[in-house]
Amino acid sequence: MAARGHVQDPNDRRLRPIYDYLDNGNNKMAIQQADKLLKKHKDLHCAKVLKAIGLQRTGKQDEAFTLAQEVATLEPTDDNSLQALTILYREMHRPELVTKLYEAAVKKVPLSEEYHSHLFMAYARVGEYKKMQQAGMALYKIVPKNPYYFWSVMSLVMQAISAQDEKLAQTMYLPLAERMVEKMVREEKIEAEAEVQLYFMILERLGKCVEALDVIRGPLGEKLTSELQSRENKCMMLYQRLQRWPECNSLAHKLLLKNPDDWQFYPCYFDSLFHLMDDSWTPPEEGEHCVEGSVHYTVAEVVRFVEERIKGEDSKESRPLRGPYLARLELIHRLREKGCPEESQLGEPLELMLQFFGKFGDKPCCITDLKLYLHLLSPDQHIQFINRLGEAVPLGEGGEEGFAFPEDTKALQRHLCVCQLSRALGLHHALDTDGKLRLITELKAHYHHGLQFGKTSLKTELQFSDMYCLMAAHVYIDLWKENGESNMVLQCLGLLQEGLSHSPSNAQFKLLLLLLYCHLGAFEPSVLIMLQNS
Fold it and tell me: Cβ(158)–Cβ(187) under 8 Å?
């Protein structure tokens, strides 16, 4: 409230001390100052409202409401009183009273742009979409500005979204909104990107994909500049809905040429290829393949395209991008599903995943990337794969316990990735009891060793080695489920609590602890963990 605008009346100077007291949280002094001012100026409505705000903030809600209603019944039109009442009603959580306030103000000052816009916003806060539409059009008639017109259009869209009768939305609200926008398009009055976005939203909800595509590809689409590739993303979505696979394919490979790491377009590219193959599509004898340009409609072309992207990454001096390497694995997966012999042209999955690990194994995302394609390995390759990954991890000399530890966080991340992939392949589960206990000892040793890399971490940051602790906990749970030994779950709880003491913000530790405590019927510790979160 301290940021007051230009002086609108002489009373601003008198009201200033009250505003200052309220802004500084000195509500009792604000009430006293308001009382002093009201003794001299009984008709100063704003002072009454400011006093009411002070009463509201000191817990005297009934007195505050009574005082506010005294002013509201007078239907004030001065800006100070209206703003103060708006603040008070907001603090009372009574936004519906603000609408009545500005309805009265608009009746008294029918040509006020400010009051009409405040009325529209008041309706928006209470979800009165029909009245929003009317207020928007009334405002546009007074001040013919585009935003006001499109406020009314958006209100119609909101009526359609909130309508219980979908038929009513499709036959009345949305068609009316469409006609209103088309009128502005014909008169060439579309100015802002938001107006084009709204037009697109209306056409999309009406299922008019062809018309929406024409808008995006036409002059209006040039206004879509706030988001990167907004126009192309919308075109891609519409091509897929319309099942225009040649255009989908062509646009995808054009966008991948610009940015080979933009993963969202690889699935579109591959999907369109197989749809084209299923449809036995062939390009026309003359001219372009489609409006977007050339189409890759054979497996050989797509394989060559992906390989070219990888060669481009391999030849870079800077660190390569993951997208093309993952795209190759994804293409192998899809070709294998379709039973296409061209799968072998892309290489052996085991070697390709080892290559991927060599390039990106020090990134936390490596595990989630490779986990998607582990099914490409045959069961007899699992142990070989993990062993070869382990050879690629730089570890120091063995310590007292016989375990070799990573010497920096990048090596630690690579080792973590190998451990997680090993568990994902089921190798942890296949161990006997002694093997699992040995594994737990190794994971705990790596966890404690890794804590040195996070000595300077904040409490809100996770330790680099937290995942070792979590995996060891899961192996304890495996043993508990297999053998039913309560000692295993108790040790698991102790380990997780230790992990939580080093990483108080680790949500996975907390969730697993909650699960175990609830399973054991120990609800008091569960409550304590939940209270730590609040």
Answer: no
What confidence tens digit (pLDDT) does each residue in 138-159 have?
999 999 999 999 999 999 999 9
The CB density around residue 143, as the number of other CB atoms within 10 Å, is 13
Can you tell me the distance from the alpha carbon of 104 to that of 114, in angstroms, rounded to the nearest whole number?
A: 14
13: pLDDT confidence band, cut at 50, 70 and 90? confident
Own/partner pairs, 510-518, CB within 8 angstroms, 24+ separation: 512/470, 512/473, 516/477, 516/489, 516/492, 517/493
Cα–Cα distances (Å) from 259 to 190, 229, 262, 309, 322, in that order, read 31, 11, 6, 10, 12
Q: Is 283 helix (H, G, I), strand (E, B) or coil?
A: coil
Tokens of 58: 């000191």
Q: Distance between CA atoms of 29 and 17, rounded to whole angstroms?
A: 9
Q: What is the largest CA-CA distance in the chain?
A: 95
User: 404-406 and 395-398: which strand pairing?
Assistant: antiparallel
At residue 496's C-alpha, the angle toward residues 494 and 501, to 5°, is 95
Candidates 528, 504, 532, 422; CA nearest to 468 is 422
Predicted structure pTM score: 0.82
Q: Enter the tokens of residue 70.
A: 């005294």
Could you list the beta-strand ranges (E) of 141-270: none
